[in-house]
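Quick one, tokens below:
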């Protein structure tokens, strides 16, 4: 086997090992096996998954409207506390409604672009977290923001967390 073939084989084996490790970690973080294809798109400094990018459909073909899923334990806890402190209502009041509507459209367009051409079954709907208007879930907005999404609510969440938690 030449050097480039050996390197390619090593990369493929390491990729498989990483994927198996991701599957174990994601199952532990979710408390159940994932029900669809995903990719880890944001990791903590120690390599632990923080944000998943989900396929638009679960394994049983059920539409999956939540493209980005926050799974990092400390992230989930901090955002849950923010939500518990009227964070959804506060975020809706703080963010321009037109900017939020545009974010929902961008999110839906990105998710819908992952649907194969010619697909004729039921499709995921809505924008961030499956909602069409307003804010439904700070976790979904923050996950998309961490993954690089242009999300004014995710940006607001990040600012709140940077300021010291929920307020």
């Amino acid at each position: 086997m030449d050097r480039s073939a050996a390197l390619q084989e090593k990369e493929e084996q390491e990729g498989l090992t990483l994927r198996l490790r991701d599957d174990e970690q994601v199952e532990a973080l979710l408390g159940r096996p994932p029900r669809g294809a995903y990719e880890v798109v944001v990791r903590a400094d120690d390599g632990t998954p923080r944000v998943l990018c989900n396929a638009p459909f679960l394994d049983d073909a059920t539409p999956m409207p939540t493209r980005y899923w926050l799974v990092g334990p400390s992230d989930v806890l901090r955002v849950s506390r923010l939500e518990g402190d009227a964070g959804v209502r506060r975020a809706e009041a703080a963010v321009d409604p037109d900017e939020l509507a545009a974010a929902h459209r961008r999110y839906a367009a990105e998710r819908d672009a992952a649907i194969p051409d010619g697909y004729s079954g039921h499709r995921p709907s809505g924008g961030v977290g499956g909602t069409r208007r307003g804010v439904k879930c700070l976790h979904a907005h923050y996950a998309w923001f961490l993954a690089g999404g242009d999300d004014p609510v995710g940006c607001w969440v990040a600012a709140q967390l940077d300021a010291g938690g929920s307020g």
